[in-house]
């Protein structure tokens, strides 16, 4: 094992000197939208009409906003609906039901989102940062470092873009809607806490103030920023917490997830358990299966023991992820037989366990692969 860094800062700031994205109605609550229009000499009551076009009607063409006066329409749209991101490339897999989009943000930063349509649901996987500062060695995004935090509106726009594609019947299966959002794209969501919580609120605000989604359909992932997990538990928003654990012992996790040198396995799992206890929401333990690294039977037993030590009241579920290897990486997916044995051992200890459906492998489905190639 290589030497892990001895410590990482709690606050992960992107490089200084970058311009901020323009303000957008998705950044603001209804009062803030009204105020921004009025600051620009425009009638504040038009904010609700613009919100209805954006969140309820999913309109992106100003010409379709016929309830706005023609003489003011351009200024109203420029003020509250500035263009935040441009699609550079969209790749499809699974007969068109998996769509990965590479976006260029206003300052040239690149991020990715993925729309996955299943028979019973449609899930958007969104990015929360351009790059990532967590430096996990098996992750394509982590190897590129952190460029900057995304704004609330940049995060929301990924979901709205997916919602438009579904509503317009552009995804096989006929018109539909986004039912689930997972913060499992590029970046560490809890390192961009304020913008991510803002996005969760916009997604769950009733239409037309937001998309009107159920918080129970939203999953926020983290590698284990313990103070932020505890802060999230106090928000009163019953999102699902997904903890990217990847190893049940500190020696290995220090290498795989460097933040573990700051917050140990025991501290991190305890924070996740407290989240489940306070919110009554089952926590998902994410575990990327890596051949010969973390997929040994004894590690399955140890993981089961760690999770079971907090009781067997159904607070946790393990989601094993077949690693989507990046080109030239030493990190490869586990042998299917080892994967099955890992599942068997966890289930023998009473831990509900599933293996994630590996969608998008042929379109560089792992987060950061498309941006890195670009």
UniProtKB/TrEMBL annotation:
Residues 118-361 form the Radical SAM core domain. The keyword Signal does not apply. Its cofactor is [4Fe-4S] cluster. S-adenosyl-L-methionine binds at residues 187-188, 221, 244-246, 324. It comes from the Bacteria. Residues 1-25 are annotated as: Disordered. Its main location: cytoplasm. [4Fe-4S] cluster binds at residues 132, 136, 139. Keywords: 4Fe-4S, Cytoplasm, Disulfide bond, Iron, Iron-sulfur, Metal-binding, Methyltransferase, rRNA processing, S-adenosyl-L-methionine, Transferase, tRNA processing. Belongs to the radical SAM superfamily. RlmN family. Specifically methylates position 2 of adenine 2503 in 23S rRNA and position 2 of adenine 37 in tRNAs. This is Probable dual-specificity RNA methyltransferase RlmN. It comes from Nocardioides fonticola.
């Amino acid at each position: 094992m290589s030497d892990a860094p001895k410590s990482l800062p709690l606050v992960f700031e992107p490089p200084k000197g970058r311009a901020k994205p323009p303000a957008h109605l998705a950044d603001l609550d209804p009062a803030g939208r009204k105020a921004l229009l009025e600051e620009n000499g425009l009638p504040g009551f038009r904010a609700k009409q613009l919100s209805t076009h954006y969140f309820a009607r999913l309109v992106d063409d100003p010409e379709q906003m016929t309830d706005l006066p023609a003489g003011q329409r351009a200024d109203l749209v420029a003020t509250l609906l500035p263009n935040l991101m441009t699609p550079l490339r969209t790749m499809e897999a699974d007969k068109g039901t998996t769509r990965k989009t590479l976006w260029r943000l206003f300052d040239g930063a690149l991020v990715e989102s993925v729309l996955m349509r299943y028979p019973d649901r449609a899930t958007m996987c969104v990015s929360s940062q351009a790059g990532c500062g967590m430096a996990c060695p098996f992750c394509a995004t982590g190897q590129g470092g952190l460029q900057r935090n995304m704004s609330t509106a940049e995060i929301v726009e990924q979901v709205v873009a997916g919602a438009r594609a579904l509503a317009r019947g552009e995804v096989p299966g006929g018109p539909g809607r986004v039912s689930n959002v997972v913060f499992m794209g590029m970046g560490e969501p809890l390192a961009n806490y304020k913008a991510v919580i803002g996005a969760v609120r916009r997604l769950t605000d009733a239409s037309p103030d937001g998309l009107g989604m159920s918080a129970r359909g939203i999953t926020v992932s983290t590698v284990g920023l313990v103070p932020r997990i505890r802060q999230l538990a106090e928000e009163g928003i019953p999102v699902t917490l997904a903890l990217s654990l990847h190893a049940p012992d500190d020696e290995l996790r220090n290498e795989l997830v460097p933040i573990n040198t700051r917050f140990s396995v025991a501290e991190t799992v305890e924070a996740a358990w407290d989240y489940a206890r306070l919110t009554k929401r089952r926590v998902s333990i994410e575990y990327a299966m890596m051949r010969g690294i973390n997929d040994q039977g004894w590690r399955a037993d140890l993981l089961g023991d760690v999770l079971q030590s907090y009781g067997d009241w159904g607070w946790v579920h393990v989601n094993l992820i077949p690693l989507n290897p990046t080109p030239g990486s030493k990190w490869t997916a586990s042998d299917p037989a080892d994967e099955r044995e890992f599942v068997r051992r966890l289930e023998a200890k009473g831990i509900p366990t599933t293996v994630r459906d590996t969608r998008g492998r042929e379109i560089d489905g792992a987060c950061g692969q498309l941006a890195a190639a670009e």
